[in-house]
Amino acid sequence: SGIIHFVETKITNGILEGINSKVQLAKRRARGYRNINNFINMIYFLCGKLKFDYPLGFT
Question: What is the residue extent of each domain of the chain?
Answer without folding.
Answer: 2-47
